[in-house]
Amino acid sequence: MKKIVKLVLEDKTTFNGKLFGYPKSMSGEVVFNTGMVGYPEALTDPSYYGQILTFTYPLIGNYGVADKDYYKLLESKNIQINGLIVSDLSKSFSHWRAEKSLSDWLYENKIPGIYDIDTRLLTQILREKGTMLGKIIVDNNEPKIYDPNKCDLLNEVSERKIEYFGSGDKIILLFDCGCKNSIIKNLVNRGYKVKKVSWDYDYSEEKIDGVVFSSGPGDPKKYGYMIEKVNHFINSEIPMLGICLGHQLVAISIGAETYKLQYGHRSQNQPVIDKISNRCFITSQNHGFVVDSKTIPTGWINRFENLNDGTNEGLLNKKLNVITTQFHPEASPGPVDTSFIFDEFDEMIKEKSFTQRTQR
Amino acid sequence: MMKDKIKKVLILGSSALKIGEAGEFDYSGSQAIKALKEEKIETVLINPNIATIQTSDYLADKVYLLPVTTEFVENVIKKEKPDGILLGFGGQTALNCGMDLVKKGILKKYKIEILGTNIKAIEETEDRQKFNEVLAEIDVKYPKSQAVNSTADAIKYAEKIEYPVMVRIAYALGGLGSGMCSNKAELKKLSDKAFSYTSQILIEEYLKGWKEIEYEVVRDKYDNCITVCNMENFDPLGIHTGESIVVAPSQTLSNEEYHKLREIAIRTIKHLGIVGECNIQYALDPNSWDYRVIEVNARLSRSSALASKATGYPLAHIAAKLAIGYGLHELKNTITKTSAFFEPALDYVVVKIPRWDLKKFRKVSRKIGSSMKSVGEVMAIGRKFEEALQKALRMLDIGAKGVIANSQFEFENLSKALKSPDDERVFAVAKAMESGYSVDKIHKLTHIDKWFLYKIKNIVNIALKIGKNKTKSISISNLRECKQFGFSDEQISILTGISEKNIYKKRIENKIIPAIKRIDTVGAEYPAYTNYLYLTYNGISDDLQIKLPKSVILLGSGSYKIGSSVEFDWCCVVSGNTLKNEKYSTVMINCNPETVSTDYDEFDVLFFEELTFETVREIYNKINPLGIIVSMGGQIPNNLALKLSKNNMQILGTSPYSIDRAENRSTFSAMLDMLEIGQPLWEKLESVESALKFAKKVDYPVLVRPSYVLSGAAMAVASNRNELEKFLKKAVNISNDYPVVISKFLSNAKELEFDAVAQNGEIISYAISEHVENAGVHSGDATLVIPPQRTYFETMRQIRNNSEKIAKELNIDGPFNIQYIAKNNDVKVIECNLRASRSFPFISKTLKYNFIDIATKVIVGKRVSKTKIPLFDYEYVGVKAPQFSFTRLDGADPATGVEMYSTGEVACLGDNFNEAFLKSMISVGLKLPIKSIFISSGPIESKAELLESMRIFKQLGIKLYGTKGTADFLNKNNVKTKILHWPLEKTSPNVMEYIQAKKIDLVINIPKNFNKEELTNGYTIRRGAVEFAISLITNRQIAMRLAESLFRYNETEIKIKSMDEYRI
Ligand SMILES: Nc1ncnc2c1ncn2[C@@H]1O[C@H](COP(=O)(O)OP(=O)(O)O)[C@@H](O)[C@H]1O
Ligand SMILES: Nc1ncnc2c1ncn2[C@@H]1O[C@H](COP(=O)(O)OP(=O)(O)O)[C@@H](O)[C@H]1O
Ligand SMILES: [Mg+2]
Ligand SMILES: [Mg+2]
Asked: Do strands B551-555 and B585-590 pair parallel, antiparallel, or not at all (unpaired)?
C-alpha cells in the first residue's frame, strides 16, 4: 500500500511528494542549501540539527552512501536532520565506495524523506519568508511539533563525553558547539592532540596551547552563557579559533552585535575577500545570523568580507591571538580554499611566521 | 593599470568553421570585442569568416577578412600598430598563429603585448612534454608518457609501456590525429600520418574505462582563482570530450572527489600562471581515488562556451576583462550583478550531445574516438537527467524522438555496437536494454558509469510500461511521469498509439504543462535577475510571469551541422537587433551552446529549448506573442511553419502555405510550369520503374532529390542505370513522407544564386552571385563570386524577371533565395527557399546593404522602399569559398558533388577577382607558393579544357607530374609532365610515394565518373593529399581559376585592407 506524504509549511503552503527513507511524520525548521555535492556530509553536520533540509540541486543520492570505514569520516556520528526534501531522488546509485542508497541510510536512522518536490519553488518561498517551521506528514499522522527556536540547541548537540583525538605534545581544547569531524581532522593533521569537550566543561586549571569554538546551530544571542567562558580565553591570550557559531560567540563576547540576514548564506559558493592580503576565496557557509561590522570594537580587525553582500566574514586580533571565520575553513561539504586558516592558527600557536604572513 | 595604457587591441579569429573549431569562437570573439569596447579600447579583428557575428560592422572598429596566418597578421600589425593582442579567443588557429608570431619575433619587433595568459604558459600547456614536467613540479599526476619526434621512437617507447597505447598530438585540437593503438602496425600508420603536420607526438598509457572530467577555471593577475563549472563525460576516457555526451555539473563524483579535483585545478592553473579562462581535463579512476591530468587548454574552448551557457556565467566577457588587467573581485557578473569572483550553483542538470553528419559521407568510418568528427552540438536543460537527455536527443534534429521510440536506428550486432562506439551508441544502449541486456553487462561493454545507465533504464522501463497495454490509453499519473522523464507527446503517441493531438488534449485538461524556470547562477539562494530560461515538467510553478509588450518569437537554427551553421545565427542576431530598434520585445528559442544568439545580451528573453512543434507551442502559450519568425534560422524553423500556423499560431512574414508550396519540389515545379519559367525536366517519382523509364527518356545523368532537405541530404546524380537504382533505395527511405523528384541533370552549366527581399510579392532589393564551379557542386560547397564575372547581362535580366514572377505568385513577404542554372542564355530554376539563405551574410556584408535588417522590417509589416543595388559596377570583388574538414573524417572521399560536405566558409574582398579569389583560397588552406603540381585530369574533354591552365602553371615555373593518361596528353601538347604511376599499380615512381614524401604542393584530381577502378585510384590520391596536408583541387573550374589568378596576380602584392576600406 503506497503511503501518501506531503510537506506542510508554517504558512500552510503544501507540497505533495513521494516518500523515501523512514515512513514517519516529522517536524522541524525547513532550511535549504544550494551546494551541488556532499549530501552525506551535510546530513551529518550538527548545524542542521533538528532541521528539515532541502537541496536546491535536484539530483540527490547519485553516489549513494559509503561503507562503514568511510562513514566514520563523515561530520558526526549520525544524521542530524529531522527530514530531507529533494526533487529527483536517485534510487539506484553508483560509486566504488558506496554501500547503500541514501534512502536506506535514512531508513536505518528513522528519518523520513520526501521527493518529487519543486525544491526551487520551495527555496524561493523560504528565502522570501525566512526559514519556517514545517512538517513532513506521512499518511496524515500529525507529528508532534518540534520548534528548534524554543530549545537550547547548543546544549542539545554538544556531546557530553570528553574525547581525545590525535597525538602530539601540544593540546587544543575544542568546545563542541555542534562540532564537525573535519575541524578535528584539520587540527590533528597539523600534529595536535585535540581534547573535545562539551560547552559546559569546567576548564579551570589545565595547560592548553590553543582553544577552538566550533560551528553549530542556532541564534548566538541565545547563548549568552558562553560569553564569560569565551572572554576568559580571550583575556588569557591563548591562541583561539572560532568557526561560524564559534565566530559569532566571540563577536558577542567582545561586545559586537549580530543580526538576522535578509538572505541567509546557505551555499558552498560564497565569495569572501581577505582584506589584509586582498586575496579572494570561495567558501562553504550555512548561517542566517551575521556579525554587524559596524559594532566591532577597536583592536579587532574586520578581516574577511563577503564579496556579494559585504557582510562580515571573520575577525582577527593579533594581540590577543584570536582568529575567527563566519565561513567554514574545514569545508566538507564545500571548497577547501580556506584551509590555510588552520595553518594560521597553527602558526599562531607556534608564534612563527604568522605575524609577517598576515601583514602582507 | 594596464587597461589604461592599452589603447588598441588586435584580436585573432578562428577563421572558417571546421570540425573541432566551430561557432564557439564566434561567441568568445564577439564577447571579447564587446568587453573591450566597454573600456573604450579600439578593436581590430582578423577573421575571414564572413558569416560570423564578430565580423559585423557594429562590433570591431576594424575588420580584416584575411587569412589568420603569420604573414597576413604581420602585415595587419604593420598597418594598424596595436598595443596588445588577444590570442585566446580564436581557438587553436589563433593560438598557434600567436605562438608563431612570437617565435618569429614579430610581436617583440612591433612592441605588442600579449594580453592575458603569457606565451610561456601557453607553450607549457601546448607542448605535452613540457606540460608533464610542469605538473611534476607541483606533484600533480599525469599519464605515464613519452614525447617522441619519430615513428621509430614511438614504437620503441610503446613496446616499453605495452599496447594498447594512446597517441596524442601537440599543438592541435579536437584530438586531431590522435588515437588508441593496440599494435605496432596501427601505431606506425598513425604516427607516420601525424608527423606529416606535427613535430611532436605523445605515447601514453591508455587509461581504459576511466571517467573523463573537466573543470573550467578562471584566474586573474592577482592570483584569484575559481572554477566556474565542472563537467562529466557520459562516455569514458578515450572518446574526445567534443565527441562525448557531457553533463554539467558532474553527477557521479562525491564531495571528496569533486573538491579534490577542484583544488588540483586551482593549484595547477596558479602554477602555470594563466590569466583569463582555461580548461583542465582529468581522467578519474572509477575504482579508486586515483586520477590523472590529461591536458590544460590555455584559451577559451568549446567546453568554455558550453560552461558559459550551462551556468549563466559570461566566461568570455570576463576573460577579456581579466586580460586587460582587471581582478575578478573588481568585476561583476554582468548578468546577475553578483561578484565575478563566484562559482555558479546550478539547480538543474545540463546535457550536451554532439551532432555528427557522418552518414552523408561515402566510405567514412563512423567510429568515434579520441579525435573529433562531430560538426556541432546541442545543449538541453532539465531537472532530471532523463528529461535533459531526451530533450537533447530531439534537439539533434536527426529524427530521434528521444532515447526510445525511434524506428531509424538498427543494430545487427548490439554487443559490437556497444563495445566499439559510433555516433549512435546511446541508441544502442537503449535498444540493448529493451532486448534485456542488464546494466552490468552494458557497463562492462561500454564502461559508461552505471548511474547513467540506470537513468536510461528508467526511461526504457517507462516506455515498456506505457507501451504494454494496447488499449490505446494512458493514465494521468503515467502521462505526468512520462513528461517528467522527458517524453515528448509524439513519443508517447508512438508508444501508446494514442494520437499526439489527444495526448496534448489530455495534458491540457489535466494541467500537465511545463514550468518556466530561470537560470540564475545562485540556485535561488537570493534573487538574481537573468533573461535566461528553460522549461521543465519537474516543477509546479513558473519562476516569472513574462509580460512582454509587442513580443516576437524568433526560432534559431539549432545545432550546427553541414548545411546549416553560423550564417543562420548571424541572421537571427541581426534580425533580433532590428526588432529591438523597431521597439519589439524579442524572444529567442535555440538549443545550440556555440551560438551568439544564445548569449545573455542579445535578446530580451532566451529560451534554451527544443525547436520542436510541441515546445514552441508551449512557449507560445506562455507568452502569447504577436507572432513567430521562421525565416531566419534555416531549415528547422522553415519546416515547422505550416504545422505551427495550422495550430493557430501566428507566423510572421511569408505565408506558411507559400513556404510549403516552394519546399515541396513537386508542387513547386508545377507552379514553375504554370508561370512558364524554365526548369530542368523532372518527374515525381512513383516507382523505381517509372524513374528508370524517365531517365531513359531524358537520358543520363539524372538527379534524384527528396523534398524538405537542406544541404542536399540523400541527393545524388546517377550517370547510369545501376547507380540510379542504388541511390533510389537510400533516398526514399530517408524521408518517405515527402515526395521524391527525379530530374535531368544539366552538365557544363553555370549556377547562380538569387538572394532577395520582397514585400507583398514585390521585390525590394536583390543580389546575384555567381558560382565559380559549374552546376553539380552543391551551392554550399561552391565558390561564390560577387559581382558575377562571366554571366551575360541577358541572363541576369531573365533571372530577375523570373524571380519577380515567383515572388508575386508566392506573395513573398521577407527574405528568399532562388537557385538558377544558366546555359547559353537559357536560365532554369532549380530551387527556391522562402527564408534567409546561407549567402545572406555574404551578400549583406559584401554589398554593404543589410538584407536581413530590411527583411525583418518587412516581416513585421513596416513599409520599406525599393533599393536598386548595382549589379556590376563595384570597385572591388567578393569571393566566398568553402572550408572542408576531410582530414578529420577518416575514409571520406574528398570530392564535391550535389550533396554538401563543407563545414564552413570564408569570404574575402579584393580589388579584383584574382586577388579576392587567392585570399579566400589561402584562407581555406591553399599553401603558396606552389612549386610542384600533380594532376590527373579525368575525362578527355576536361583534359582539353585544362590544357591552357597547365601551360600557365608551367610558365610559372611549376614542376608538373601526372598520371599516365594526363601526362601523355600534356606532353603530346608539349607541356612537359613527369609520369607517376597510379596508386593501385604499386610500381615506382608512384604518386603515393611523392605525396607521402611531400614532394608535391598541390594535387589536382578531377573525378572521372563513378567507375569503380578509377574511383579507388582517384580516391586513394585524394585521400592521400588530405591526410598528408597537401592542397587538393577536385574541380576543373577552380583549377583553371587558380592558374589564371596566379598568372595575372602576384600573391606578394596582396593588399591589406579592412572591410570599410572597400567602397562601392
Ligand atoms: N592517456 C589516455 N588514455 C585514454 N584516452 C585518452 C588519454 N589521453 C587522452 N585521451 C582521450 O583523448 C581525447 C583527446 O585528447 P586531448 O589531449 O584532450 O586532445 P585535444 O587537445 O585535441 O582536446 C581526450 O578527450 C580523452 O578522451
Ligand atoms: N538539374 C540539375 N542540373 C545540374 N545540377 C543540379 C541540378 N539540380 C541541382 N543541381 C545541383 O545540386 C545542388 C543542390 O541542389 P539543391 O536543390 O540546391 O539542394 P539543396 O536543397 O540541398 O540546396 C545545386 O546547388 C546544383 O549545383
Ligand atoms: Mg587541447
Ligand atoms: Mg581536450
From this structure: parallel
Report how far residue B308's alpha carbon sits from residue B96's, in angstroms, rounded to the nearest whole number.
Answer: 24
A6: Cβ contacts below 8 Å, ≥ 6 apart = A14, A15, A16, A17, A114, A136, A137
Alpha carbon of B373 to ligand 1 centroid (Å): 14
Which chain B residue's Cα is nearest to A94?
Answer: B451
Write down the pLDDT at residue B712.
46
ipTM confidence? 0.95
Cell, residue B380? 538541453
For residue B739, is pLDDT > 80?
no
Buried b (16+ CB within 10 A) or exposed e, B664-700: bbbebbebbeeeebebbbbbbbeeeeebbebbeebee
Q: Which of B805, B767, B563, B846 is nearest to B678 (CA)?
A: B805
- Which grid cell sits at B966? 594526363
Chain B residues within an 8 Å CB radius of A38: 254-255, 258
pTM of the complete model beyond 0.80: yes
Helix axes B489-496, B500-509, angle to 10 degrees: 120
Contact between residue B309 and residue B379 where contact means Cβ atoms under 8 Å apart:
yes
Ramachandran angles phi, psi of B1041, nearest 5° = -60, -40
User: Position of cell 535536484?
Assistant: A58
Q: Which residue of B has its CA nearest to A96?
A: B287
Question: With a 6 A CB cut-off, is B831 part of the ligand 2 pocket?
Answer: yes
Chain centre distance of CA B17: 6
Q: What is the pLDDT of residues A304-360, one digit of tens each?
A: 999 999 999 999 999 999 999 999 999 999 999 999 999 999 999 998 546 555 654
Nearest Cα residue to B936 out of B921, B948, B946: B946
| Contact partners, residue A292, CB within 8 Å, separation at least 6 | A256, A257, A258, A259, A312
For residue B743, give the nearest of B829, B822, B802, B801 by alpha carbon.
B829
Considering only CA atoms, which of B998, B842, B849 is closest in space to residue B920?
Answer: B842
What's the angle, vertex CA A20, arms to CA A17 and CA A21, rounded to 5?
Answer: 145
- In chain B, which among 302-341 make CB contacts under 8 A with chain A? 328-329, 338-339, 341
* pLDDT of amino acid B196: 77
- CA B892, CA A165: separation in Å to the nearest integer? 66
Q: Are strands A14-21 and A5-9 parallel, antiparallel or unpaired?
A: antiparallel
Q: Which ligand 2 atom is nearest residue B899's CA? A: 14
Alpha carbon separation from B55 to A265, B12, B25, B49, B593 (Å, rounded): 43, 11, 12, 7, 19
In angstroms, rounded to a whole number, what is the distance separating the alpha carbons of residues B95 and B299? Answer: 8
B938-994: pLDDT as tens digits: 888 889 999 999 999 999 999 999 999 999 999 999 999 999 999 988 888 999 999
Beta carbons of B794 and B825 less than 8 angstroms apart: yes
Span B398-424, mean pLDDT?
A: 94
Distance set, CA B97 to CA B36, B50, B86, B171, B1001 (Å): 21, 20, 11, 11, 21
pLDDT classification of A59: cutoffs 50, 70, 90:
very high
DSSP 8-state symbol, B772: S
Distance from CA of A317 to the nearest CA of B (A): 25
CA dist B33 → B26, B79, B316, B483 (Å): 11, 20, 10, 41
Where does the pLDDT of residue B4 fall: very low under 50, low under 70, confident under 90, or very high at 90 and above? confident
Start-to-end C-alpha separation, chain B: 42
For residue A295, give the 3-state DSSP assignment.
helix
Strand partners, A112: A21
Strand order in the sheet with B42-46: B62-64, B42-46, B8-12, B84-86, B113-114
A307·B515 Cβ contact <8 A: no
